[in-house]
């Protein structure tokens, strides 16, 4: 994310934002919700530790990469897998803490649910600022804020525990409609995350209600026979039932979108902004071959500007190489344009490419003209160009495998 001349890597910006919103939610819980301090301490500590686990889970998931280049820890995180590990930690830590200190589950729920929606709202609005034209992300953000407001006004434990279930059902549907459901036969990690969260909150809700029923009266109906859970279960079934409809609608939208993009290519403006036709160029590769951008029409292209002396560039190269190896047969091409005019010599680039086993196209911008054409002032800078030659996204800073996968899957 860019603030004037200051560049903050997206993942690190989320980390910083998470720490700041933790303090805001801490005082919100104490002063607005009137929650006991020990409960807010539990929420604060569990979230901070969960975020740190998410951030540094990259070390566990990619130990060889970290050993080869420790700087990768600064730029990348564990992605959706890291989020899953963080959620597991928060769940176990919270359960043990509540049991040890005899904290009322109802009091904890009263604080945790609104704070949860507060976190979610913050992070989604950060994504809105990165892509303000994506109405589906805006919809996700609006839904999150609405649930935050509602949860802050509700005191009934049973109702509060149902809110996250309905919330994630809605987010699940939006994720499906975002065309993130299936890509190359693999279910989207975002969709899997929402399904997992729905299951987790269903279990929590069921366990809490069962405990309450046993304490209130042994003859009360047990299991899934209460009306609220029936409605929730019905919502899940309905959600799964309408998935084919949404998928068909999205497929129709994709066809219409391709038609629009094709028209834009014929009459669109050439430029480096999103939605414009990427300026054409021709450069020599490191192997001496001529490579022209327009010759790659029909393929999705990641156009990356980098240099050997740039630490974040060095950090993203293993991620980029891995992504290229897994997607080179899926009409995906990587053009890594080295700003050779900033290097000590062309031989430095050749040695670096050989030592790092880079097999995607490395192009040499010896005069820096293409870098200036695309405004690559801060590196690494990457452009995502679709099969019609239209720029569909721009990313300033190093890209993780997950970031590249998210960009490509959104336009394939």
TrEMBL record:
Keywords: Disulfide bond, Membrane, Transmembrane, Transmembrane helix. PROSITE patterns: THIOREDOXIN_1, THIOREDOXIN_2. Gene3D superfamilies: Glutaredoxin (3.40.30.10). SUPFAM superfamilies: Thioredoxin-like. The chain crosses the membrane at residues 12-30, 42-61, 73-96, 108-128, 134-151, 191-208. It holds the Pfam family AhpC-TSA. InterPro entries: AhpC/TSA, Thioredoxin-like_sf, Thioredoxin_CS, Thioredoxin_domain, Thioredoxin_ResA/DsbE_sf. CDD domains: TlpA_like_family (cd02966). The keyword Amino-acid biosynthesis does not apply. Residues 272-412 form the Thioredoxin domain. PANTHER family: THIOL:DISULFIDE INTERCHANGE PROTEIN DSBE, THIOREDOXIN-LIKE PROTEIN HI_1115. This is TlpA disulfide reductase family protein.
């Amino acid at each position: 994310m860019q603030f004037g001349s200051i560049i903050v890597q997206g993942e690190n910006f989320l980390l910083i934002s998470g720490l700041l919103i933790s303090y805001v939610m801490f005082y919100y819980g104490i002063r607005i919700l009137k929650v006991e301090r020990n409960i807010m301490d539990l929420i604060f500590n569990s979230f901070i530790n969960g975020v740190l686990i998410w951030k540094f889970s990259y070390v566990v998931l990619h130990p060889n990469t970290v050993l080869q280049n420790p700087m990768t820890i600064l730029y990348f995180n564990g992605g959706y897998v890291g989020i899953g590990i963080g959620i597991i930690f928060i769940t176990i830590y919270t359960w043990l803490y509540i049991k040890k200190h005899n904290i009322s589950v109802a009091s904890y729920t009263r604080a945790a649910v609104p704070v949860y929606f507060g976190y979610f709202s913050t992070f989604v609005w950060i994504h809105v600022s990165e892509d303000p034209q994506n109405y589906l992300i805006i919809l996700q953000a609006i839904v999150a804020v609405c649930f935050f407001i509602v949860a802050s006004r509700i005191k009934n434990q049973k109702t509060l525990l149902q809110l996250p279930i309905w919330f994630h059902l809605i987010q699940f549907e939006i994720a499906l409609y975002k065309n993130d459901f299936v890509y190359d036969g693999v279910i989207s990690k975002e969709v899997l995350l929402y399904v997992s969260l729905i299951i987790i909150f269903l279990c929590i809700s069921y366990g809490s209600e069962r405990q309450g029923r046993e304490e209130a009266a042994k003859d009360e109906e047990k299991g899934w026979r209460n009306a609220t859970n029936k409605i929730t279960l019905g919502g899940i079934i309905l959600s799964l039932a309408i998935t084919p409809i949404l998928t068909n609608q999205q497929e129709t939208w994709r066809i219409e979108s391709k038609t629009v993009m094709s028209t834009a290519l014929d009459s669109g403006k050439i430029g480096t902004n999103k939605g414009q036709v990427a300026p054409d160029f021709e450069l020599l590769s490191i192997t001496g071959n001529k490579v022209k951008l327009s010759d790659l029409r029909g393929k999705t292209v990641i156009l990356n500007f980098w240099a050997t002396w740039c630490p974040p560039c060095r950090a993203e190269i293993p991620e980029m190489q891995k992504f290229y190896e897994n997607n080179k047969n899926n009409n995906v091409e990587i053009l890594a344009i080295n700003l050779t005019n900033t290097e000590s010599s062309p031989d430095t680039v050749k040695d670096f490419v050989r030592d790092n086993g880079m097999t995607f196209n490395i192009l040499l911008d010896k005069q820096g003209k293409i870098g200036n054409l695309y405004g690559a002032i801060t590196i690494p800078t990457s452009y995502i160009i679709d099969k019609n030659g239209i720029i569909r996204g721009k990313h300033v800073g190093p890209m993780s495998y997950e970031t590249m996968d998210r960009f490509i899957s959104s336009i394939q």
